[in-house]
Specification:
Layout (H helix, E strand, L loop, with lengths): L2 H5 L2 E3 L4 E5 L3 H4 L3 E5 L8 E17 L4 E6 L6 E2 L4 E5 L2 H33 L17 H13 L5 H38 L2 E3 L4 E6 L6 E2 L4 E18 L11 E6 L2 E10 L9 E7 L11 E7 L12 E4 L11 E5 L6 E5 L1 E6 L3 E6 L6 E3 L18 E3 L5 E3 L1
Antiparallel strand pairs: 1-21, 2-3, 4-11, 4-15, 5-7, 5-10, 6-9, 7-8, 9-11, 11-14, 12-13, 12-15, 13-14, 16-20, 17-18, 17-21, 19-20, 22-23
């Protein structure tokens, strides 16, 4: 491209209205246009760019480790609530469950034995101090008529106290058996939960937006599985300048343009916090049911301005529509880096369209950036125009060194 043509492609940003000012031929070789700051008010409406998003989106992750045995469908597959979308091999979890169930059975048998012993102690004490006189051995006849009574008279034995001690011991053994059952039941519940975690269920009717696993792959706890979206209703998410938010309300009608289609929308959600870096507040606008849109589409909404009679008084940065690079889905321009003199792609968030082929830039550019006026289609970063303007004129006509 000829050097004089490239010189004519550079633009310096600084306000709202493009003001053409001549630069001496020996300095730039061709007139260089500059945007004068604070030169005009914007119209009584402002256009903001956003993106179409589903009503709900979840990122499913694995809760267990193992090999993937099943994945439902592919990207775009519709699923119903409660349907298994991913299944992981559950042999290890099944073995843990069987082990826990065996421990529970053992604890239940121990409780039955302890309960029988406690009941017998209540109705038929087993203390040796109350042995029958017909029994054989030291606790038999001799102990009943001679040793036992003599020990009681001497204060060496107390049958009632011995019976009480045996009863307390039997009751403690029964309580311990009950606790062992509770512990075993908890282990069974944990094992059952781990077993159920091997299957991932759809929490709502939706569509698989992306997959991160395939059958035969190995996952760990926390590994991403897939993204599921509820596309029964679609919304447009937009970052709105914070000074416009006080005039917005839930349910407020908002016109939306997606491609060449104009759709009615209503404000569905206003976030309670603003982004400190951009001073914007995200909002979501509900599209009508059955709108012919897909997640990720670029959308434009129209809002009233924030000044008197709906007119904004604040200066804004604008760019000619000819500076937008053709062939990109999102609005982009080529900005010349003042240090390397090479171009960089800047993605823009556009506002309203102004007269004379200008469009307001809400984000992506700042006053003083140098933009290529007529970039080639599908232009990429790293292009070197070969010339940086030497002189830039402000709106008063005075020139300054760039």
């Amino acid at each position: 491209m000829h050097r004089s043509t490239l010189r004519a492609l550079l633009l310096t940003l600084g306000g709202v209205v493009l003001v053409g000012t001549g630069v001496p031929a020996h300095a730039a070789g061709a007139p260089i246009s500059t945007i004068a700051p604070n030169s005009a008010k914007s119209a009584n409406q402002i256009s903001l760019g956003g993106v179409v998003v589903p009503l709900r989106t979840i990122d499913a992750v694995s809760l267990v480790s193992g090999r993937v045995n099943f994945v439902l469908g592919s990207i775009g597959t519709r699923v119903t609530a409660g349907q298994v979308v991913v299944a992981v091999n559950n042999s290890a979890q099944m073995a843990n469950l069987q082990e826990a169930q065996a421990e529970l059975l053992s604890a239940q048998i121990g409780w039955q034995t302890a309960n029988i012993q406690y009941t017998r102690q209540l109705y038929s004490p087993r203390s040796n101090n109350v042995a029958s006189p017909m029994s054989i051995g030291p606790s038999g006849l001799f102990n009943h008529y001679f040793t036992g009574p003599f020990a009681q008279m001497a204060g060496l034995q107390d049958p009632g106290l011995d019976r009480y001690a045996d009863t307390v011991q039997s009751k403690d053994e029964l309580l311990l058996a009950e606790q062992q059952i509770r512990v075993a039941q908890a282990r069974v519940a944990n094992a059952q939960s781990a077993l159920s975690d091997t299957d991932t269920y759809a929490p709502f009717d939706g569509v698989i937006m992306s997959k991160q696993v395939e059958v035969g792959g190995t996952v760990q706890p926390g590994s991403p599985l897939l993204v599921l979206a509820d596309v029964s209703r679609m919304l447009v998410k937009v970052d709105v300048p914070e000074d416009l938010v006080p005039s917005m309300r839930l349910g407020q009608p908002v016109p939306i343009t997606i491609g060449r289609t104009e759709l009615p929308g209503i404000i569905y959600q206003i976030y309670p916090l603003a982004a400190p870096s951009t001073h914007t507040v995200p909002i979501k606008i509900m599209l009508p049911p059955g709108a012919p849109v897909a997640s990720g589409m670029y959308a434009t909404i129209t809002l009233p301005g924030n000044g008197a009679d709906g007119v904004s008084q604040s200066p804004q940065v604008a760019v000619p529509e000819t500076a937008l690079i053709k062939g990109y889905y999102l609005p982009c321009v080529l900005v010349v880096n003042p240090h390397t003199h090479k171009t960089e792609i800047h993605v823009l968030r556009l506002g309203e369209t102004l007269p004379h082929g200008m469009v307001v830039v809400l984000a992506g550019l700042k006053s003083g950036d140098q933009v290529v006026l007529h970039p080639p289609a599908h232009a990429a970063s790293g292009w070197e125009p070969g010339h940086t303007p030497h002189t830039v004129a402000d709106r008063s006509g005075a020139s300054s060194r760039g």
